[in-house]
TrEMBL record:
Belongs to the mycobacterial A85 antigen family. It comes from Streptomyces fungicidicus. The keyword Signal applies. This is Acyl-CoA:diacylglycerol acyltransferase. It comes from the Bacteria. SUPFAM superfamilies: alpha/beta-Hydrolases (SSF53474).
Amino acid sequence: MAAHPPTRRSVLRSAGGLGAAMALGATGVLAAASPAAAVGDGFGLSIVERDERDPRMRYYRFRTDAIGWNPGVNVLLPDDYHHSGRTYPVLYLLHGGASDFIEFDRLGVRSWTAGKPIIVVMPDGGRAGWYSNPVSSLVGPRNWEHFHINQLLPWVEANFRAYAEYAGRAVSGFSMGGFGALKYTAKYYGHFASVSSHSGPASLRRDAGLVTHWANVSSAAAELGGGTVYGAPLWDEARVSADNPVERIESYRHKRIFLVAGVSPDPINWFDSVNETQVLAGQREFRSLLTGAGIAHEAHELPGGHFVRDEMMRRDIDGMIGHLRRA
């Protein structure tokens, strides 16, 4: 690695350590989203922009003291939402680094969920926010964990026919978002009955803390203006342990767990190779600890490197629908 130090450009492309070179552009955003007067909706959120014209995909942008800019959220409704009268389970789907809340609309979430009885909430998480409240920020608040758990989740359950209970919630994500899903599930034990990580890291301390160092480097470059998620040059060790899936094994008991990693990263793409190699090693460590603790899980190692696998997303969504409370 020393022979190929990351440039600022490459950090921004792969921010979030394992954020993959998913599209940086915002093509595919719902068109003609019109500004609206700020509406006080409680939970510390005010809607400043919305588009509810699409019968399935709702778009919102919020003002919140937790974040120094107005983060966006897509909410994808089931096909029959408007006439069924039913209440639905909810999937919180977290994007990778160097991306945004539109990532999964670009990748095919409408197709993955067509005809399926589940609401999908896709929030902004920052270019390298790591689904965390950082130790330091030089550009204003970037408290993504607080925004998602304490503000967005109750807002969703107050504004949509969503089960406001453990058995009705799942969380999944890709890359940095896969880490976020594992982290949120362990830290908020009673929130999510199903957790999935698609090419997301599961071990922060292995290999001399490579993932933790990458979280700090990428967040400093792309998110926090030189601040860091975990502290530098010394880490906030308690925070690292609280976020580290392999140190929270008992917190995954009695949950559905779905893991995906690639076994043949691109040897030409340095970031892909480092990212998925570290993902695979960390997930294997995590799986070994789960097995040793007698905690059931479903894991897949597949050809290829660091990208979202369409067939695995479909399988994951079907699995979580089968596990969660039925609509």
